[in-house]
């Protein structure tokens, strides 16, 4: 299975409409891939909080239409990163979209863990509630977004639902790049799954982005890693590697579930 991660540079001088057209063209150039992945909030920038409301779209808005067409033109499965979605009731969500090679929507995932603590995304956007997996011909994808990477229980849930390849678009800041690489490898090792983590380049609202999109195999080996700038990272994966790893080192079978919290000693 050939996967291409498009690490988009978000330039604040580029309009959203121009970037949307440019990214659609980049997707079409990946016609030899099976799966193409875009980063988080690439239309606005993940730290451009003041833009979320102004640039928010309905689910089937202009970004949806452009990416559906690009997926169909390229004949690829397209994880279109995420966009600020405005629900009919007015709530904003950080929503990822997955399109089939025919351009049909295969899934939508609303980010569960919102970053910012008491500001930014955490107060501007609603939280998703549902784990999302999607069966492709070669593998089953588990969908997560950026800050989700810090919460291993989410990925355990995806694995329990059949995920073999974990796809994580992000707008991760450069100042925490070491965490990005460490956590991507940890999620791969503990879940014995491929991790495809696609970040952004450039600067979002004055926050330099980490770039360094990364593909990790189920043993935790880094198969490919991008640099800091805009780049297309393409790697060939063997989906059978997941089953072989889980059979050769069956750690997932030794999970102990339902542990009670410790009792306080008096």
From TrEMBL:
Taxonomic lineage from the root: Bacteria, Bacillati, Actinomycetota, Actinomycetes, Kitasatosporales
Molecular function via GO: hydrolase activity
Protein's UniProt name: Carbon-nitrogen family hydrolase
Stored CDD domains: nitrilase_5
Keywords: Hydrolase
Residue span(s) of domain CN hydrolase: 1-239
Similarity comment text for this entry: Belongs to the carbon-nitrogen hydrolase superfamily. NIT1/NIT2 family.
InterPro entries (alphabetical): C-N_Hydrolase, C-N_Hydrolase_sf, UPF0012_CS
Pfam families: CN_hydrolase
């Amino acid at each position: 299975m050939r996967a291409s991660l498009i690490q988009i540079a978000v330039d604040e001088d580029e309009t959203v409409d121009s970037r949307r057209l440019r990214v659609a063209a980049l997707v079409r150039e990946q016609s030899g891939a099976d799966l193409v992945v875009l980063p988080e909030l690439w239309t606005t920038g993940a730290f451009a909080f003041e833009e979320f409301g102004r640039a928010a779209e309905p689910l089937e808005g202009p970004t949806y239409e452009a990416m559906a067409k690009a997926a169909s033109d390229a004949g690829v499965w397209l994880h279109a990163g995420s966009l600020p979605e405005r629900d009919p009731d007015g709530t904003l969500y950080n929503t990822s979209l997955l399109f089939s090679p025919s351009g049909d929507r295969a899934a939508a995932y609303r980010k569960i863990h919102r970053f910012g603590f008491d500001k930014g995304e955490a107060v501007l956007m609603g939280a998703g509630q549902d784990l999302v997996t999607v069966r492709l011909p070669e593998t089953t994808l588990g969908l997560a977004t950026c800050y989700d990477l810090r919460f291993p229980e989410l990925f355990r849930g995806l694995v329990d639902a059949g995920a073999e390849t974990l796809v994580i678009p992000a707008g991760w800041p450069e100042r925490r790049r070491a965490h990005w690489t460490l956590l991507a490898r940890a999620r791969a090792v503990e879940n014995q799954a491929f991790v495809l983590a696609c970040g952004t380049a450039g600067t979002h609202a004055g926050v330099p982005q980490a770039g360094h999109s990364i593909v990790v195999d189920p043993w935790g080996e880094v198969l490919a890693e991008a640099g800091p700038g805009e780049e297309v990272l393409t790697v060939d994966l063997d989906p059978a590697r997941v089953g072989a790893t889980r059979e050769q080192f069956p750690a997932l079978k030794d999970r102990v579930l339902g542990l009670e919290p410790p009792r306080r000693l008096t």
